[in-house]
Amino acid sequence: MSAISALFRRELSLATRAGGGALMGALFFLIVVTVIPFGVGPDMALLARIGPAILWIGALLATLLALDRLFQADRDDGSLDLIIMGEEPVELVVVVKCLAHWAATGLPLVIATPLLAVLMNMEPDAILAATATLAVGTPALTFLGAIGAALTVTLRRGGLLLAILVLPMTVPVLIFGVSATTAAVMEPAPFMTPFLILVALALFSMVIGPIAAGAALKHGLE
Amino acid sequence: MALIDLANPTRFIALVERVLPVLVALSIGFIALGLYQAFFVAPEDYQQGDTVRIMFIHVPAAWLSLFCWSMMSVSALGTLVWRHPLSDVAAKAAVPIGAAFTFVCLVTGSLWGKPMWGTWWMWDARLTSVLVLFIMYLGLAALWSTIEDPIRAGKAAAILTLVGFVNIPIIKFSVDWWNTLHQPASVFRAGGPTIHSSILWPLLIMAIGFTFLFTTLHLLAMRNEILRRRLRTLRMMEAARSDSSVATTTTAAPSTAKLGAAIEAGAE
Questions:
Q1: Is A51 in the B-facing interface, judged by CB distances under 8 Å?
Q2: Which residue in A154, A171, A216 is closest to B159 by CB distance?
Q3: What pLDDT is attached to residue B261?
Q4: Residue B130 has what DSSP assignment?
């Protein structure tokens, strides 16, 4: 257990200190959300309507951009080989790395969401719903993204391929995340149904992501 | 002949050469019969008119797009679990064919949708999930082409294929789980098909023809892939040989001689 907690602390401190760029993701999120009104025009009613979608797509892109850091730096300095050859199962290692990665890059997005939602002129209910769905959804994005990060870790310029591989898998998460947020303000539609499916998707990705990413890392070492 | 015997590529190619004429004849025969029936025998639909004939291409292409990914998933298991040497060849050869069938399915569906639904495209669950399938085929092709070593690329692609298999039941049941514009299943459903036999028979003949076509194309692509890998190995051996011979004979100017050998090996 101590090895696992040591790994978590290591990942977290590496991600938050210089070069990791934990807040860079949140800054990118802010910029994406700021750019949208320039594209669609400052129509406050329209922004309130498409706000949940913008927040979700911004969070998705910000997560994607940070994903290639998940295994790449450790692979470059050789510590990935050591970690995988250690006693802990590689799937557990992936879980820990993903959780630390999420705490460093996903959590700031969730914290920034209410502020950005105000910029989008969203109602209080919608702000609450957007924050809740992103809190549940961004870990799912990280775990699914770990598959792509593990598959492309041996490639020198895998960033674009990573996005191509990961984005189709994130479509269900995006659909239910946005529909739950929209349902919170649209009266007849229930909030809980899409939200529970989103939670289920997050749990599902928490299982399939580490297994697939672990297998990819093991085969990549051979 | 057991599956393991086919692990020998030479034996596999010999088998392909033997069955290929039969398969070509069967695909041409079934598709010709199916097209004739589709255009001249099958009646117009009372609501859709002649546009119903698009279905004879659309539906088999859609089935094959799902079948192809499922086949690739079995091959992926073959790569990761049984380590059958030809399974990653099978998986790689199937990717462009599957993408082509999915593309045909999307295009014909769109052509049918314009007169029937009044729109080329609708973001409903079935259409969206098939589009995602198409993008996943392309992503898989990108992954195959990025990793140079075929064994390594095969393993990475196998993992991605198995993860992507999650989408297959979603596509199949999307019309039942969600209230979609796309019609629900009408051939393979509990309680028998809901299509009249005059349309169902040409459809099934076309589906058989498409399956033979897929098998023909797939075996051809597998043969090409095996030959391509042989060429790659021969070229690498040639390069290694010329490299070592140069190193032993010429000691005066090894760097330029090596460069010359490398250029020769690259030019071949």
A1: no
A2: A216
A3: 52
A4: H
b/e A173-189 (16+ beta carbons within 10 angstroms → b): bbbbbbbbbbbbbeeee
State which residues form the domain around B121: 19-175+187-243
Residue type at B66?
L
Q: Is residue B268 in some structural domain? A: no
Q: Are residues A171 and B138, on separate chains, in Cβ contact within 8 Å?
A: no
Chain A residue numbers touching B168 (CB-CB < 8 A): none
Do B159 and A208 count as a contact with CB atoms less than 8 A apart? no
What gap in Å lies between CA A64 and CA A70, rounded to an integer?
Answer: 11
- Is residue A206 less than 8 Å (CB to CB) from chain B? no
Residue B7 lies in a domain: no
User: Minimal Cα–Cα distance from A72 to chain B, Å?
Assistant: 16
DSSP-assigned letters across all residues of B168-220: HHHHHHHHHHS--SSPPP-SSSTT---S-HHHHHHHHHHHHHHHHHHHHHHHH
Compute the distance between CA of residue B202 and CA of residue B41 in angstroms, rounded to an integer.
9
Give the residue ranges of DSSP H helices in A86-123: 90-101, 107-119
In this prediction, residues B135-164 reach a mean pLDDT of 90
The gap from C-alpha A26 to its chain's centroid, in whole angstroms, comes to 11
pTM assigned to the model: 0.83
**Complex ipTM more than 0.85, yes or no:** no
Which of A165, A212, A219 minimises the CB distance to B139?
Answer: A165
The mean pLDDT of B86-96, rounded to a whole number, is 92
Question: Residues with Cβ < 8 Å from B151, sequence gap 6 or more?
Answer: B88
Q: Point out the residue among A161, A167, A222 whose CB comes nearest to the CB of B143.
A: A161
Write out the DSSP string of B32-74.
HHHHHIIIIISPPBTTTBGGGGGHHHHHHHHHHHHHHHHHHHH
In a domain, B12, yes or no: no
Average pLDDT for B190-206: 80
- What pLDDT digit, counting tens, does each position of A113-163 carry? 999 998 888 888 889 999 999 999 999 999 999 999 999 888 877 778 888
Q: Rounded to an integer, what distance in angstroms lies between the CA atom of residue A208 and that of residue A134?
A: 20
Hey, are the CB atoms on B143 and A165 less than 8 Å from each other?
yes
Rounded to a whole number of angstroms, the CA Rg of chain B reads: 24
Residues in Cβ contact with B170 at an 8 Å cutoff, skipping those fewer than 6 apart: A172, B129
Number of A/B CB contacts below 8 angstroms equals 57
Q: Using the beta-carbon criterion (under 8 Å), do A165 and B162 form an inter-chain contact? A: no
In-domain check, residue B250: no
